[in-house]
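We read letters as residues; the fold follows as tokens. Both lines appear below.
***
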Amino acid sequence: MKHLNHVGLFLLSFTCLQLSAAAPARAGISREAEALVNWKASLVSADESLGSWSLANSTSLCSWTHISCDPAEHITGLDLSGTSLNGTLDRLDFSAFPQLQILVLSSNSLYGTIPAGIGNLTSLVDLHISDNPYLRGAIPHSIGQLKHLSRLVLSLVGLDGRLPEEIGNLTTLEELYLNSVPLTGPIPLTIGMLVKLRVLSMQQNNLTGNIPLEIGNMTELCKLYFSDNYLEGQLPGTISNLINLQDLDLSINQLGGHIVTKLGNSSSLDMVDISHNKFSGLFPPSICMGNVLRTVYAEYNRFTGIHHQTFQNCTSLQTVVFTANNIVADIRDIFGEHQRQLLMIAFSQNQLYGTLLTDEGEIFFCNYTGLELIDLSNNVLHGGLSKCFWDIPWLGFMDLSNNSFDGVVPLSRSFPYALEYLRLANNHFEGPFPLALKKCKNLTTLDLGGNSFSGTIPSWISKDLPGLRFFRLSSNMFDGIIPRQILQFSRLQLLDLSKNKLTGAIPDDFLNFTGMAYEQNDDSGYHKFPGKIQIVWKNVDYVYTTKIAGMVGIDLSGNVLSQEIPGGLTTLLVLRYLNLSGNHLSGCIPEDIGNLVLLESLDLSRNQLSGEIPPSFTGLKSMSALNLSSNKLYGMIPMGSQLQTLVDPSIYINNLGLCGFPLEDCVNSSPSKQNERSQSEDREALWLYCFVAAGFIFGFWLYWGMLSFYSETGRCTFYQYVDNMQENFTKKVHSCISWFQAKALNEV
């Protein structure tokens, strides 16, 4: 019995201890529930999925939505991503969650600031507050208290100020994402203390100053993204310490000087993007040391050369872009003949020289059977093209414009069926329209301008190239008529046949020209690289990317086209520019031209157009460049709000009798001009009558003379009749002249 009492006392004591221990735990859970309910009440709105958050339901806290717990029923995870939170974090008691390890608040509408109390989440491992653009203020210094943090994501928020020095206290951090915050000021030197960091992303901020030398301390770093900032100075030599680096993106900054020769020390380097900076000198030959490099973007810098071994040994290289540098090199010294893995080569706007042809007469690029894009525009390359160029099966983009290539575009049995973009402009190519293009049915952009192509424009072009959207043959020697079939292009947005020798009338069947009649989806151009095309935009030469929405226009200027401007042009309602200048067009300006409400540039100068400017001209609400000079137009210039902004009188000069703003006022000049025009018309009518009468007399004389030649009586009768008719005709002419003179005097 005594023994049983001892056992009972022990059990009672144990139970009391359990109850005393459970009480604080229960109190902690209640505090967590209360903190969440109070914060929810402070929000302007939230998703319906938070309906389970209620104190009445606090005994089952771990069953609340978006919450995860540990075995003791304490909250360890809170994921509220995309729950339409609209409010602040001010009423959230962070100190109520000592066991919280994961906090995700991304993709909401939180505003205000990040409270300093967030530093109380001392167990936090993953903090994710991205995509809340209305958050303001600075990153709190208390962020340095999160000593167990492994992942910090503060991207796409409206925070400002500098990255606090306390960031260096997060020595367990492995991933740091601070994209589009936007941060200001320099990168703190303490960032070098993050020796476990594998990913550092600080793109699209307003960071200034140099990249600190301490960056070299982060030897575990695999991905480094500093693009789109205002960083300057040279790339620190300590970057060669990053032997595990895979991705390096320093693009769109103001970094300069020579690239560190040991940039390629990492055997894992896969992608380098240093484009849009001020780097100069020789591109480092060690970039492929690990032989896994696949992508190099170095466009828009000041590089002057590339070591001849730099890329020839890059057996994994797929993309190399050096557009807009000052590289002087023979094209064959940069690339080897057997780099079949290359997908994209872009060296436009450099000083590459030499020929693409090998000693065997083939182009060494033809061995690159996987090639999808080649851009060698704006260099000093010369020589011809080999037919093997058409044998590259996946080639989708080719730009060889602005070089000195010559000869005839060759024909081949094979064709690059994938070809979407072809630009051979501004070279010395000759011969007829390239028949090799007939099977390139995926072409969307074709620019052959600025060459010596000749002959007629083939009628098959719209049938065999049905997807064409940008078509330019400007500045060649094409002759003959514009084939009517050219108006069968249903997707065409730009047609430039200017500066050729085309004759005849402009075709008038525009029913299928829907690409210029309705707004089109902007899916034009090669999808992996922005295409360009040269146009005359508002009387100035421009090079536009084919991705520009609404770039719709027709340029037929500088030919020998005749007859009237077709009325069907006024149905192309999304035209932004129309240039028909320098032809032999006659007749009137179409009455419905005011339908082209999006038209910004119109040039009809140097033709033989007559009549008045149609009143519908006032409907051209977008017009900012106009030229109607050197025609036979007369009458009053229409008054319109947009036309009143065109104050240069030269756009109307050399016409018969235009008046009104910005020329002379019609009140003073119109009577005399109308009188002059009336007298001119009357004189033309008088001469017409005279010529008709003279022709009648001559024919009559000849007929009767032959009839009565052998009869004296007949001859006398005939002469008498002619004398009477002549007298009557003289009286009629005298009467007409008197009437016209009197009419003119009365009008004066």
Observations:
- Residues 7-22, 669-723, 729-748 have pLDDT under 50 and may be disordered.
- The first strand starts at residue 67 and ends at 69.
- The two ends are 147 Å apart (CA to CA).
